[in-house]
Amino acid sequence: MNRRDFLKTSGLAFGALALPGCMEGLNLSGKSSQRPNILFIMSDDHAAQAMSCYASKINKTPNLDRIANEGIRFDNCFCTNSICTPSRATILTGKYSHKNGCLTLSDRFDATQQTFPKLLQKAGYHTAVIGKWHLKTEPTGFDYWNVLPGQGKYFDPVMSERRNFSPYENYVTDIITDLALDFLKTRPKDKPFCLCYHHKAPHDMWEYDKKHAHLYEDIDIPEPDNFFDDYKNRGRAIKRATQKIGMEETVFLHGTQGDQFDNVRREIADLPPEQQKRRAYQYFIKAYLRCVASIDENTGRVLNYLDETGLKNNTIVIYTSDQGCFLGEHGLFDKRFMYEESLRMPLIVRYPREVKPGSVNDDIVLNVDFAETFLDYAGAPLPSDMQGRSLRPLLRGKRPKNWRTSMYYRYWMHGAHFNVAAHFGVRTKRYKLIYYYGLPLNAKGAKRRPTPPEWELFDLKKDLREMNNVYRDPAYRAVVRKLKTELVRLRRELEDDNDGIVIDVG
Ligand code: CA
Q1: For 353-376, how does the pLDDT look when each residue is reduced to its tens digit (9 = 90+)?
Q2: Neighbours of 345 (CB within 10 A)
Q3: Closest CA to 123 of 184, 192, 186, 185
Q4: Peptide bond preceding 202: is omega within 30 degrees of 0, i.e. cis?
Q5: Containing H/E element for 197?
Q6: Which distant-in-sequence residues (6+ apart) come within 8 Å of 19 by Cβ?
Q7: First and final CA of the chain: distance in angstroms?
Q8: Which of 21, 99, 222, 372 could form an S-S bond across to 95 if both were Cys, CB 3.0 to 4.6 Å?
Q9: CA 201 to ligand 1 center in whole angstroms
Q10: Residue 354 C-alpha to ligand 1 middle, in angstroms?
Q11: C-alpha dihedral (55, 197, 210, 54), degrees to nearest 10
């Protein structure tokens, strides 16, 4: 295809393409620009185990896989507080929850504080956020924003375009993508851009696009091997939690697609509990995966646009989710726990200039690292009060010798939703030590009753599914001591040790 044909078929104005800086990597002087564009795609509650590049057993995500195949897949990316608003606040600020003030879902984000979009703007980037925001206060640091109020709706959502509320028609994932493509087409071409393209899906309630209604219709999705977990050899926390798939608390209170909700519930009401649980899982997982299918297809549209307009080589494409999600593992849905499926974030990145296609990294990386990574690529100074690290060396395949070997996690909302106990813990490559400290320490939790504290230790090398708490096993006494020492060190280093909780290292 010659240039003229290309311009015609891509539907672009000739004038726009002729502008300096529009073609990839060219600045006004015609030299290769060192500052890449950033396309930061984030979905909500999309678990890595529902992506085929992470060896999903339940679905295929060919478009997301393109990012991994043409870039890098991180296998140990973790969230520092597995819940929506807090994870988003951590990503924006490069700081843990106790530093950015968003500990729980009830906290309002202090929009006056330092964030990566503000710093990118200062460094000359054109910044935008489109889609899910969920931080209670209005976006700041963005030249353009158009976001869903609160959780937003799956169908015919209202969106706030810089405070002008307008209704949109049809399915939310398509709408957000259309707006993202409009932004890419109309942005000023003399500046690098940073677009936060953030989906509402596949958060509950899982309402899928009508065109995906028949996906998986005639098949049963395989259940995870620990779907019928009996919670033996675990602490009380998981037994008391109510985010369980079945007839009682359940997925049914959180999943709806119009009348289907009541229909399915009626249909399974008289079945034995085991059957009810199986049927509830099928209902939940199919709705969830149909929501994912739309994200995958729409990601393909955006990747095609970048590739067709010559933006591919000079644009970093990141795909992640604000945290993981249980998809029937331990019989659970939702997140919050420090267990693997909830803790792990998918993270795949394409950047042809620096990332070798098909790379895989297993270092411990965190949502607190994203801000500094973006600033590093923008050539902006890294503020000393940010608490993460730029992932740029890892993206280039060079691990710094002093890269972290452990991570700190904390969930604050004691008993607030699904009766999940507040906890903190440390994860290394091999072990995970969790302390359910039992004290409600946040405003929401303060009204709730304390529970007795308890510990869990998992040897992930022998027990990746976290089915066997070995905290009291004498064979692990030295490991426990070492991990408690590391937990104390992390809490001190990150300045989260002024909560009155004392850890006896023993
Ligand atoms: Ca979320």
Answers
A1: 999 999 999 999 999 999 999 999
A2: 26
A3: 192
A4: yes
A5: strand 193-198
A6: 189, 190
A7: 71
A8: 99
A9: 9
A10: 30
A11: 0
Enumerate helices (H) and strands (E) in the chain, giving the number of each. 15, 16
Q: Where does 309-369 have alpha helices with state H? A: 340-343
**How many CB atoms are located within 10 Å of the residue 1 CB?**
9
Pairwise CA distance, residues 453 & 461, whole Å: 26
Contact 127, 142 (CB under 8 A): yes
The yes-or-no verdict on residue 174 having pLDDT over 90 is: yes
Residue 456 tokens read as 């869990």
pLDDT of residue 23: 41
- Look up residue 439 and give its two tokens: 């004290």
Question: What separation in Å is there between the alpha carbon of 179 and the centre of ligand 1?
Answer: 21
Q: Residue 203 Cα, ligand 1 centroid: separation in angstroms?
A: 7
Helix (H) / strand (E) containing 95: none
**Ligand 1 centre and the CA of 42: distance in Å?**
10
Q: What is the mean pLDDT of residues 398-414?
A: 96
Tell me: pLDDT of 259 over 60: no
In the prediction, which pLDDT does 450 show?
Answer: 80
Got the DSSP string for 328-397?
SGGGB-S--SSSHHHHB--EEEE-TTT--TTEEE-S-EEGGGHHHHHHHHHT----TT--S---HHHHTT
